[in-house]
Specification:
Largest sheet: none
CATH architecture of the largest domain: Orthogonal Bundle
Helix content: over 70%
Order of helices and strands: HHHHHHHHHHHHHHH
Structural class: mainly alpha
Distance between the termini: 35 Å
Shape: globular
CATH topology of the largest domain: MetI-like fold
Strand content: under 5%
Number of strands: 0
CATH class of the largest domain: Mainly Alpha
Amino acid sequence: MRRSYLRSALIYLSALLFLFYLHLPTYQMLLTALQPWDEFIKHVPPLLYPSHITLINFINMFKVVPELPTYLMNSFIYGTGVGLLSILAAIPSSYSLARFKFKGKEAILALIIYANMLSPIMLIVPIYRFMRVLNLVNTYYSVILAGSIFTTPFCTWLLTSYLRGLPREIEEAAMIDGCSTSKIILHIVIPLSAPAIVTSFIYAFITGWSQQFILALVLIQRDELMPVTQGLYMFFARSSVRWAELMSAILVSTLIPLAMFMVVQKSLVRGLTAGALKG
């Protein structure tokens, strides 16, 4: 029994040390954002705690980059669009994979898993050429469509795994009562799959948020359509970098996906767990 407690203590201690090491850059970002820059650079090596806390950097960041609220709103639009489009594509496709029998279904599922390994940088040239043919460059639609390419496969796989665990009897009873497939999906499958759908949406939103820089760097040239990841470059001057304001802007830009994650944390964990157990 004592050996078991000692083993558990070592595991938790190792996990805490790993998390501490992992979040050292985040802590450094907080120190830089919450201190006056003149006070911060006075100490070499830097202090491990703020000598004086101030919010002036959060005020100054809007003076350095006045368009920052626009960039944040653009990022929110891109992330939300990627999430919604991924869900709209994943629900009917996952229902077909979970309920219908046809040749090549397992091969399709294998290709879906393989598609998650693709990085946006690998496909950025064909994506740009495709968007240019459709005349979508420099529009919200280009980043949303491109972002959903990399999030839809995982959303489809997760929802397929979840739907396979749902009882068919409810759907069969609805068919006997005369419900069409579309009504079954809308009134039965979607409500029962809410945890997995929320999980898929949050995954797609956060992934779309993180991939905006690479996609927008090629697809967006108009300043008013830039996401916050591109807008952060405005803090880099020719001769210097506004580090305090930059760290403040990065901190604010991370709060949106973090807040969304915290709001739906229970649904997210429940959806992932259900998908793993029912797959």
